[in-house]
């Protein structure tokens, strides 16, 4: 049973995240989306809201679940017997940070590997921060996020 953790902020989850997730769910037996309680980042949504929206967005996947965690991702992965961390790569600009992160995680626990996945080109530019920016300027986010997220955020804004 190959278990993979897909860690991140997911503030909010986007169609880009979902596309990565779809690939991960095809490759691994079980995928856990792990929403990080990040003390360095001021959240837009609470972790509970993010987890709730993810739950509503992953109903089509039978081997994916969602959870939240504090502390080191690698410790969370060990606790759940995961062998793999999933990260997504968009542009070259993601690469340096993601490379450092994966090497740091590997130095902490060499048996847990980071696997990088990419999205279809049409999802490549989508980031949670872009969604927040479009929303704050009253733009239409419906094409970029799961339906539950669009409904929730549009209602929140009005
Ligand atoms: P973090 O704060 O950990 O970067 P995010 O929620 O922003 O959390 O992203 C989680 C992971 O998903 C990261 O590896 C990020 O690169 C990846 N990701 C997010 N959006 C996309 C996208 N559109 N295409 C590919 N990967 C993505």
* Sequence stretches where pLDDT stays below 50 over 5 or more residues: none
What separation lies between the terminal Cα atoms? 45 Å
Using the 3D structure, state the CATH architecture: 3-Layer(aba) Sandwich
Q: Which class of secondary structure composition applies to the elements? A: alpha/beta
* Total of DSSP H or I helical runs spanning 4+ residues: 6
The share of residues in extended strands comes to: 15-25%
Largest sheet: 5 strands, parallel
* Helix-strand string: EHEHEHEHEHH
Tell me the helix content. 40-55%
Q: Give the spatial strand order of the biggest sheet.
A: 3-2-1-4-5
Mean pLDDT: 95
**What's the domain count?**
1
CATH topology: Rossmann fold
Overall 3D geometry?
globular
The CATH superfamily turns out to be HUPs
Radius of gyration (Å): 15 Å
Small molecules (ligands, ions, cofactors) in the structure = adenosine-5'-diphosphate
Report the strand count: 5
Please describe what this structure looks like.
- The protein is of the alpha/beta class and 158 residues long.
- It has one domain: Rossmann fold (3-Layer(aba) Sandwich).
- The protein is 43% helix and 18% strand.
- The protein contains six helices and five strands; from the N terminus they run βαβαβαβαβαα.
- The protein has a five-stranded parallel β-sheet.
- Helix 1 links the parallel strand 1 (3-8) and strand 2 (30-36).
- Helix 2 (47-57) crosses helix 6.
- The chain is globular and about 45 Å long.
- The model has no long low-confidence stretch (mean pLDDT 95).
- Bound molecules: adenosine-5'-diphosphate.
- Adenosine-5'-diphosphate is lined by residues 8-10, 14, 16-17, 20, 87-88, 90, 94, 119, 123-124, 126-128.
């Amino acid at each position: 049973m190959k278990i993979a953790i897909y860690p991140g902020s997911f503030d909010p989850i986007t169609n880009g995240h979902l596309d990565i997730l779809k690939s991960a769910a095809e490759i691994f037996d079980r995928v856990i989306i792990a929403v990080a309680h990040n003390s360095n980042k001021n959240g837009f949504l609470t972790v509970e809201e993010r987890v709730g929206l993810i739950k509503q967005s992953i109903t089509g996947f039978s081997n994916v679940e969602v959870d939240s965690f504090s502390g080191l991702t690698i410790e969370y992965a060990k606790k759940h017997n995961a062998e793999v961390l999933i990260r997504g790569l968009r542009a070259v600009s993601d690469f340096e940070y993601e490379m450092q992160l994966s090497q740091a995680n590997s130095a902490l626990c060499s048996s847990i590997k980071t696997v990088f996945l990419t999205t279809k080109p049409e999802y490549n530019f989508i980031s949670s921060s872009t969604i927040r920016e479009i929303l704050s300027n009253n733009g239409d986010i419906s094409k970029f996020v799961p339906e539950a997220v669009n409904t929730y955020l549009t209602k929140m804004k009005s």
